[in-house]
Design goal:
four-stranded antiparallel sheet; metal-binding; sequence-specific DNA binding; nucleus; 5 helices; mainly beta; Znf_FYVE_PHD; 33% strand; 412 residues
């Protein structure tokens, strides 16, 4: 995703999708993604993370359970989309919510949380990635002097200096101290530094979250007071660390010591917020030229009907299920053909319904023919009672008093 254009209160991004081949990593969260550079080449590196358990291992009790991903390192070629995984002996257990720091072709991994043992070991790894003409070479070294932390935030204050703020010591204990990471050639050192004067709200809250804003600034968020009318309200703070051109330590303490006295209902809305526009592009380069597929010749960009308005150059997603290809539905006329759901004026609810039920669909051009060929409903046959034989009389039985007396005595 890259910035395409920016004007007054309007930013346009272009999103390019890359088809991945090879050992594609599974969907995950809590991982890190970095880009390393070596010998004029670039490579995307994915490390750690957490995901749902495999479908074949799910049960009703643990359907939404998650596990740490396998402790593998994935290299993704940004040019061709080739994925390769590497298993390192130094990585014994999976971990997630760690910190990563990249310098050219070296990645440093700090901290993290292991879900299997519910611990935050002081991990400290140095991973070096060489990108020669052949296959990449990945090596790992375990360093000493790591810190125990998860979900922390790191910002750069100088060319070779970084500050680590926030995170957790345990599930119920926030990490209120700060650390400075100093890089010097091939040497790295983590030292504890003076923490800012946290506000009472930050000290007493159970959870906090945020991200790096660049230039030594960090955005912090904490949940709002439960007494507020808006239960999902959050309070935000900006922590400004002293950068290379600003040696003032007072600024770091001053910004985070400002308490929020404004009521959530009286806060000013973001009336001057910027408008973001996203455009989609498709990159079809793959690792093997024989696997390349021309999207213009595929079935998604056909002229499905006389009034088809779907064009590969101007199409934008209409349904929530669409990403980079238009939704299509199969018409059951004769040999059948595919049509765009947008050209058939189908609502999203109807499109979802037709995809779930076992029924035939006919496009607008063939719906009249389908009605003419409609099979009539099967009518159950009428039950016919057997006719009585004509002119057939049953013999009448007449019991005289003598016969009645005889029969009564016989049964007695």
């Amino acid at each position: 995703m890259c910035l395409a254009s920016k004007s007054n209160k309007k930013v346009t991004f272009t999103c390019t999708e890359k088809e991945l081949v090879g050992e594609v990593p599974e969907g995950r969260y809590g991982h890190t993604v970095n880009v390393v550079h070596n010998q004029g080449k670039s490579m995307i590196v994915i490390i750690g993370g957490r995901s749902y358990i495999a479908l074949g291992q799910r049960t009703t009790e643990k359907w939404n359970s998650v596990v740490d991903c396998m402790p593998h390192i994935f290299l993704v070629d940004p040019e061709f989309g080739c994925c390769t995984s590497y298993a390192l002996p130094e990585f014994q257990n999976g971990f997630s919510f760690h910190l990563s720091l990249v310098q050219n072709d070296v990645i440093y991994i700090i901290g993290g949380h292991s879900l299997e043992n519910n611990i935050r070991p002081p991990n400290f790894y140095k991973i070096k990635i060489d990108l020669p003409l052949g296959s990449p070479a990945v090596s790992c070294v375990i360093l000493s002097g790591g810190i125990s932390v998860s979900s922390a935030i790191m910002t750069q204050t100088r060319e070779k200096e970084f500050v680590v703020v926030g995170g957790y010591h345990s599930d119920n204990q926030k990490r209120m101290i700060c650390n400075t990471i100093n890089l010097d050639d091939n040497k790295i050192e983590i030292v504890e530094t003076e923490a800012p004067e946290w506000t009472p709200d930050i000290k007493h809250c159970k959870i906090w979250f945020g991200n790096d804003m660049g230039n030594g600034s960090i955005l912090f968020g904490i949940p709002g007071d439960n007494r507020q009318l808006a239960s999902d309200a959050n309070y935000f703070y900006i922590l400004k660390c002293p950068v290379e051109n600003d040696q003032s330590l007072e600024q770091m303490a001053q910004v985070c010591s400002q308490s929020s006295t404004e009521d959530a209902g009286e806060s000013t809305p973001f009336e001057d917020s910027e408008e973001f526009t996203f455009g989609f592009d498709i990159d079809t380069d793959t690792c093997n030229e024989d696997d390349n597929e021309n999207e213009s010749e595929s079935g998604y960009w056909i002229t499905c009907c006389a009034g088809c308005e779907v064009d590969i150059n101007t199409w934008v997603p209409l349904y929530s299920t669409e990403l980079n290809k238009p939704a299509m539905i199969f018409c059951s006329n004769s040999e059948g053909h595919w049509v765009h759901a947008q050209c058939m004026d189908l609502s999203e609810n109807m499109l979802i319904y037709l995809s779930q039920v076992d029924t035939k669909y006919f496009c607008t051009e063939h719906i009249s023919l389908a009605r003419g060929l409609k099979t009539p409903k099967e009518i159950p046959p009428i039950e016919k009672k057997p006719m009585k034989a004509l002119r057939r009389k049953k013999p009448m039985k007449i019991f005289t008093p003598a016969k009645k007396s005889f029969i009564r005595k016989l049964f007695e």
